[in-house]
UniProtKB/TrEMBL annotation:
The gene is ydiU. This is Protein nucleotidyltransferase YdiU. ATP binds at G100, G102, R103, K123, D135, G136, R189, R196, D275. GO terms for molecular function: AMPylase activity; ATP binding; magnesium ion binding; manganese ion binding. The active site is at D265. It comes from Sphaerospermopsis reniformis.
Length: 482
């Protein structure tokens, strides 16, 4: 998996460089970006290549060599321009007009075999005009954490960016939140778009409705193509964005994921999840669980995520109202709660084994499950993983056999709420034919991976990397999500 320095292959023989790059964003003109150069690194060691997403680009993993990744995504050869995108954002409630790609750039855009346009964005590729006091770099641990989050979230059904590659770059970095000096990396993120809510906020700040209109037309043409020929495409776009964001935050909540930094510069205009910094998965169901140590007022705690996303959508109305009627914006946002609750209910029922959200007892089961998880404070991920692993047709026989064999049960004891949960689950199973138990078992396995990404798990794969440069536990963990 790792590779040191290698000779320089030609562009034509490198499948990553001979992809058909499109210049969709570049062709909007240089009001939206600055052309920048990549850092020249002292070392390039490929630590991660995401073979699972290569087919989406029409590539077979066997035809792409490790050195192809290094030359394209570590040495940054044979391609340009590299565009540091300009954006602002509300950070912890304060407007910040000094943002922009400060340690990354848009490397290129490629259309997948699904017809969708994908961004290749870097993280940790050096300083830009937006670096302010920063070094433009990404720590190796930061790269490892982003690879892991994206793969785990993808496995859990969250619409997310993925990492295409992560290369160790041989620098020593100083960070206040990691033992320093610490190792460096550069990552390529493949996502639907790096246009953020904050990209529009900047245009409003600059009083440039003409640029807002041009960008919005581009966003609709490229990322909401089904709307582009509608008379009221702008109102429909906002309504659709509200739906996508409401569903995204429901996906995080069901996955037990706390993003940690839901500033408007970390919200994608496509409604996709990205930027995995100080995130954490909840150890147990706790609405106040806060992932970032610097989030003193719990602004972005687990349970606040739906209302913060609603607020961010409301803040976006400010730039959009130059183009879209206020009444349409209000109407669009008014649907947020409905979309959120529907998606959350559907996803939680799937985690409980039921694909069909019309399940008559669905609301009762959801309420009781959440109450149980909250009151017992058992491991959120282990509960569902145990269900998936031990599910048996015998659970139909009597309520006392439900969850029988689950490791987690002894820690629950015989609380009333758990007994009630078992009674209800037993009753629901008996509303199905015995032949349908196989489907329930498959649904449980599909939505509840055995692996999880709780903090001690991440530390357990990081330690071997630090102590003996042993990357196998990292590869094994990622494999558990793919
Ligand atoms: N080490 C750094 N050097 C320079 N700029 C940085 C550094 N870390 C963060 N920034 C900048 O600070 C701002 C907020 O950072 P944040 O961590 O949200 O984004 P990011 O992780 O760098 O990038 P992305 O949002 O694409 O994942 C951005 O403008 C970012 O470019
Ligand atoms: Mg960011």
């Amino acid at each position: 998996m790792t590779l040191a320095e290698t000779p320089n292959p030609t562009t034509s023989s490198n499948p990553l460089l001979s992809l058909k790059y499109e210049s969709a964003l570049e062709s909007l003109g240089n009001d939206y970006y600055d052309e920048v150069a990549a850092e020249e690194f002292p070392q390039h060691i490929l630590r991660w290549r995401n073979n699972a997403i290569l087919p989406r680009l029409g590539l077979e993993a066997t035809t792409v060599k490790d050195e192809d990744f290094i030359h394209a995504f570590g040495k940054f050869q044979s391609r340009k321009p590299f565009l540091a995108l300009r954006y602002h954002g509300y950070q912890f409630g304060e407007y910040n007009p000094h943002l922009g790609d400060g340690r990354g750039f848009l490397y290129g855009q490629v259309r997948g075999i699904d017809g969708e346009l994908y961004d290749f964005g870097t993280k940790g590729s050096g300083r830009t005009p937006y670096s302010r006091g920063g070094d433009g770099m990404l720590t190796l641990k930061g790269g490892v954490r982003e690879v892991l989050a994206a793969e785990a979230l993808h496995r859990l059904g969250v619409k997310t960016s993925r990492c295409l590659s992560m290369i160790e770059t041989g620098l020593s970095l100083w960070r206040g939140d990691e033992p320093s000096p610490t190792r460096s990396s550069v990552m390529i993120r493949m996502s639907k778009s790096h246009i953020r809510f904050g990209t529009f906020e900047r245009l409003h700040y600059l009083k440039r409705p003409d640029l807002t209109q041009k960008l919005l037309d581009h966003v609709i043409d490229e990322y909401y193509p089904n709307l582009k020929n509608e008379d009221d495409k702008y109102a429909l776009f906002y309504a659709e964005l509200v739906k996508r964001v409401a569903e995204l935050v429901a996906q995080w909540m069901a996955a037990g994921f706390c993003h940690a930094v839901l500033n408007t510069d970390n919200m994608s205009i496509t409604g996709e999840s990205f930027d995995y910094g100080p995130y954490a998965f909840i150890p147990s169901y706790d609405l106040y669980f806060t992932a970032a140590y610097f989030d003193y007022y719990r602004r972005y705690c687990y349970g606040q995520q739906p209302s913060i996303c609603h607020l961010n959508l409301e803040l976006l109305q400010e730039p959009l109202k130059a183009i879209i009627d206020l009444a349409d914006l209000h109407h669009g946002l008014g649907k947020f709660a409905e979309y959120y609750h529907l998606e959350y209910r559907n996803l939680m029922l799937k985690k409980l084994g039921f694909e069909d959200s019309n399940l008559a007892e669905g609301d009762d089961l959801l309420d009781l499950t959440v109450t149980f998880l909250k009151d017992s404070q058992i491991n959120y991920h282990q509960f569902f993983a145990d269900m998936a692993q031990t599910f048996s047709i015998k659970w139909r026989d009597e309520p006392g056999l439900v969850m029988n064999g689950c490791e987690i049960v002894p820690s629950v004891g015989s609380s009333n709420i758990f007994d009630n949960w078992c009674l209800l689950y037993h009753k629901i199973l008996n509303n199905f034919d015995p032949e349908q138990m196989q489907t329930i078992s498959q649904t449980l396995a599909k939505y509840n991976p055995q692996a999880n990404l709780l903090r001690p798990v991440i530390e357990s794969i990081w330690q071997p990397i630090v102590e003996s440069d042993n990357w196998q536990p990292f590869y094994d963990l990622v494999k558990g999500f793919q």
